[in-house]
Design the sequence.
């Protein structure tokens, strides 16, 4: 049923009334602070009218299925928009099976193949697999365990990504440009990620809003990331484009918002191969504050080193099958699941995170259905399975194929690990399959991993000794207050870790300190953040930001340094408080944040605990606060300074579900904790106002730029008349050029363009050819202003047919050729060679054409063939600034200084073909070093239109 049909529903049936009552009760729990006097109507939207975001929606659907003992139709989670849609879904739902239906047999096992061991970049990995087995299935996108949405072979991924890369290049994407990806799990994300890489650009994954009730904070955070990254293009889904438009004015670099469909071109394309492993593979933004995002720079070499080290540690191969619901915009899902599977050609099955949140059992069913050998999840996912999966949901499930499931990305709970193994061991889960791990974005994704074939190792330590003296003394067996810490294993091959004290000196076993690491996966720093980068490095070691101790070579992480609360000389670990308080009835799991807040009067840290609850009764809330006080007191030996009860969806979290304690502290200290969430309309209005302010702030600059463009064209038109008269009337060529040179300089001066010439003495070196890079029509103006005597330009023959332009150029001694590769035309080559022998200074644009794309294109051989045949040296000339002034396809000139650099002549060694090629390459290398633009050698892309390229 669609939204229009819902308005035509007859009087609700009994089950419809029950459903509405259930929704009413849920909305009251979700937003106890709201006025709920108005009854829920069939036309009410779930997000705008009822304030149910994506996470709340998952919980609501789970309650509906359990209350009505049904299984909602596939797609309901993402497609239902109004209450009437849910009514229709309940009517269409099948009864919930108490035993599992027999599923179809899993796909046949694929033949074993080798990994791309010689690849230096991610695109080389993909290209290697395409060359070896193009039709091998790489990724399968699932809606649930039995419903396949899409499959993709290596060849399909490479072809689609190359087409998207061509679209990016046609939109002026240059190597190194940042391309933001705001896409859900699916083939579009894979195409966009590898498409950006094939274009030589840098993907920047960011996540779409998870909660519409926090849309303002989310979009402001994304604007901060986009500004820091300097993103030029954002690729998203059509539905998200209006949201991005609300912050576009705040991101000056953002030129276009696209979808995969609008970027992909139909024509085949040849792209330059990316072979430099030191090039940036992507930027992974960590959960910093809105105003200070941290983009971890990860090179292709970093990523491949981590994938190889992880693969070695777990004996990965093409026989493996990886089932993952992890978000692709997070390093755990992108590097661990996608890039790891790509490298080893393992079969990859991808599920939406929303599918997992709505039905955690779908993850376990998919592991069984596709006989997965590998999977991974943060600790909260295992807790979700424990809390929300009923035994009937997984009747008949067999997890015996799973040889390992990594538990990482957040603190690993000993209690969760034990309970998960005990709960699912009867379903074939091997205890040794649970593999606690530790990693961080600054080391790609993984740093330490528990050994294969061993159940999780849990260390029981004396709480008092660790919190007061930083010593991990093993607790006695009867110590009920012992602190349990799970081993995260040993460093990956090729990597090293150490624990240091505050002075940076390495400390001994079972001493708590700062964890540092080094290895080939380590980042080079944070993008455009030299201060944070400097803080990250301690010599050759990198600071993890975590406290830990080591025992028998294994790493035990005790907490984030910035999150640890110090009171009366005692270390208090927030995650331990959060775990215990979350167990109290009435508290929302994963809805607790514990942090320290500075007390200015005493100079110590106050212990504050934010606790999400749906309770609104004053007596119940008072009792809950008392229980939370008691729980915390029993753990840390003193009561917390404040327990603040807040509504659901208040505690800030990262994209991977981790509590953002710093943001929670800011919320508390600003007095915003517990206040009612602003309406979505109000937040959208605030975003719109912010965008309008940003656009208005840019308005004076836009007006000034438009005024400058009018002046620029006016000056050019004014100078055109005397230039035409001089060229057409003066009898001697050298006179025409002398006057034209002065007019060119006067034109640049009139439009306020500084012109700097370096290396002018090389132009007086005698007979020679000079070659320039070509980026704009304004190149001719700059060359005319600096080149002495009466130079001979080489231009395309199409100009000769134009009456005025052809006459004007002929009066300047221009030689017209069929094409710039003059060796292909013997007549043209002979004419140019003859002129060169007479001592005239020939001016060539060896690129032959210019486009909008920034970079030095491949050189044609014509100029160098003439130089070799005549024995004349070639003078490299480099023009900078004209592309910024007047770009191809841009008729609004911008102010830009121009510089012309003339390098020393390069003499040919002979007229053999190999010598011509060597001469070209030597000259091009000189120009590449000076032009300040990337190397586009070997690049060919389809044209947007017949006017997309020009000859100078």
Sequence:
């Amino acid at each position: 049923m669609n939204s229009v049909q819902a308005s035509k529903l007859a009087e609700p049936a009994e089950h419809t009334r029950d459903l509405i009552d259930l929704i009413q009760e849920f909305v009251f729990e979700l937003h106890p602070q709201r006025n709920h006097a108005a009854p829920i109507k069939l036309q009410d939207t779930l997000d705008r009218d009822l304030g149910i975001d994506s996470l709340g929606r998952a919980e609501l659907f789970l309650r509906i299925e359990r209350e009505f003992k049904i299984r909602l139709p596939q797609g309901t989670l993402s497609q239902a928009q109004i209450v009437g849609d849910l009514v229709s879904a309940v009517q269409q739902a099948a009864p919930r099976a108490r035993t599992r239906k027999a599923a179809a047999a899993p796909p046949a096992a694929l033949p074993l193949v080798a990994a791309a061991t010689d690849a230096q970049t991610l695109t080389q990995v993909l290209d290697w697999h395409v060359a070896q087995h193009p039709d091998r299935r790489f990724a399968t996108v699932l809606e649930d365990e039995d419903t396949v949405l899409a499959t993709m072979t290596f060849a399909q991924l490479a072809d689609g990504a190359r087409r998207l890369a061509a679209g990016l290049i046609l939109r002026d994407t240059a190597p190194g440009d940042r391309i933001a990806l705001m896409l859900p799990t699916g083939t579009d994300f894979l195409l966009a990620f590898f498409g950006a890489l094939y274009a030589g650009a840098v993907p920047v994954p960011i996540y779409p809003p998870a909660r519409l009730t926090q849309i303002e904070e989310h979009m402001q955070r994304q604007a901060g990331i986009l500004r820091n990254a300097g993103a030029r293009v954002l690729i998203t889904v059509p539905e998200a484009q209006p949201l991005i438009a609300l912050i576009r004015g705040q991101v000056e670099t953002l030129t276009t918002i696209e979808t995969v469909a609008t970027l992909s071109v139909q024509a085949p394309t040849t792209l330059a191969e990316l072979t430099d492993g030191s090039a940036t593979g992507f930027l992974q933004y960590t959960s910093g504050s809105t105003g200070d995002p941290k983009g971890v720079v990860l090179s292709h070499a970093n990523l491949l080193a981590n994938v190889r080290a992880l693969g070695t540690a777990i004996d990965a191969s093409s026989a493996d099958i990886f089932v993952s619901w992890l978000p692709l915009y997070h390093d755990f899902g992108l590097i661990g699941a996608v890039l790891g599977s790509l490298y080893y050609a393992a079969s990859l099955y991808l599920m939406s995170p929303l599918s997992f949140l709505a039905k955690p059992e779908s993850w376990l069913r998919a592991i069984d259905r596709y006989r997965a050998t590998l999977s991974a999840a943060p600790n909260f996912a295992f807790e979700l399975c424990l809390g929300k999966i009923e035994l009937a949901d997984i009747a008949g499930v067999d997890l015996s194929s799973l040889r390992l499931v990594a538990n990482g990305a957040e603190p690993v709970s000993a209690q969760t690990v034990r309970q998960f193994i005990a709960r699912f061991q009867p379903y074939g889960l091997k205890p040794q399959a649970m593999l606690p791990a530790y990693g961080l974005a600054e080391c790609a994704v993984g740093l330490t991993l528990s050994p294969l074939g061993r159940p999780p190792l849990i260390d029981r330590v004396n709480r008092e000794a660790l919190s007061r003296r930083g010593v991990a003394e093993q607790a006695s067996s009867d110590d009920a207050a012992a602190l349990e810490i799970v081993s995260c294993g040993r460093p990956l091959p090729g990597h090293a870790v150490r624990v240091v004290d505050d002075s940076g000196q390495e400390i001994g076993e079972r001493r708590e300190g700062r964890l540092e690491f080094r290895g080939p996966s380590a980042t080079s720093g944070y993008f455009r953040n030299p201060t944070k980068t400097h803080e990250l490095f301690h010599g050759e070691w990198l600071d993890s930001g975590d406290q830990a101790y080591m025992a028998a070579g294994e790493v035990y992480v005790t907490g984030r340094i910035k999150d640890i609360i110090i009171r009366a000389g005692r270390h208090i670990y927030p995650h331990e408080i959060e775990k215990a308080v979350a167990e109290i009835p009435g508290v929302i799991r994963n809805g607790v944040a514990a942090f320290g807040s500075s007390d200015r009067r005493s100079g110590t840290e106050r212990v504050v605990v934010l606790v999400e609850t749906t309770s609104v009764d004053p007596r119940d809330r008072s009792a809950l606060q008392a229980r939370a006080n008691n729980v915390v007191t029993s753990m840390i030996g003193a009561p917390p300074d404040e327990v603040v009860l807040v509504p659901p969806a208040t505690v800030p979290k990262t994209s991977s579900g981790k509590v953002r304690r710093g943001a929670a502290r800011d919320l508390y200290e600003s007095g915003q904790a517990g206040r009612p969430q602003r309406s979505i309309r109000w937040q959208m209005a605030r975003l719109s106002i912010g965008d309008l302010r940003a656009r208005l702030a840019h308005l004076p600059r836009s007006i000034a730029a438009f005024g400058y463009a009018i002046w620029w064209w006016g000056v050019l038109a004014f100078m055109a008349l005397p230039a035409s008269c001089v060229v057409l009337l003066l009898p001697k060529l050298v006179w025409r050029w002398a006057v034209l040179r002065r007019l060119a300089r006067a034109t640049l001066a009139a439009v306020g363009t500084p012109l700097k010439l370096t290396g002018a003495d090389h132009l007086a070196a005698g007979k020679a050819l000079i070659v320039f890079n070509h980026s704009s029509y304004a190149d001719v103006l700059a060359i005319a202003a600096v080149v002495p005597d009466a130079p001979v330009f080489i231009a395309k023959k199409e100009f000769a047919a134009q009456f005025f332009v052809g006459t004007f150029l002929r009066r300047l001694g221009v030689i017209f050729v069929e094409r710039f590769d003059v060796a292909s035309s013997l007549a043209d080559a002979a004419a140019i060679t003859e002129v060169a022998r007479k001592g005239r200074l020939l001016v060539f644009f060896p690129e032959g054409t210019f486009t909008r794309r920034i970079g030095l294109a491949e050189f044609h051989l014509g100029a160098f063939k003439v130089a070799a045949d005549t024995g004349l040296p070639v003078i490299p000339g480099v023009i900078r600034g004209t592309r910024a002034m007047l770009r191809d396809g841009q008729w609004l000139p911008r102010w830009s200084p121009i510089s012309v650099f003339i390098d020393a002549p390069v003499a040919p060694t002979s007229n053999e073909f190999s010598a011509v090629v060597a001469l070209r390459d030597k000259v091009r290398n000189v120009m590449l070093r000076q032009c300040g633009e990337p190397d586009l050698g070997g690049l060919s892309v389809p044209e947007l239109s017949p006017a997309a390229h020009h000859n100078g």
Remarks:
- The chain has a mean pLDDT of 81.
- The first strand starts at residue 70 and ends at 71.
- DSSP finds 30 helices and 36 strands in the chain.
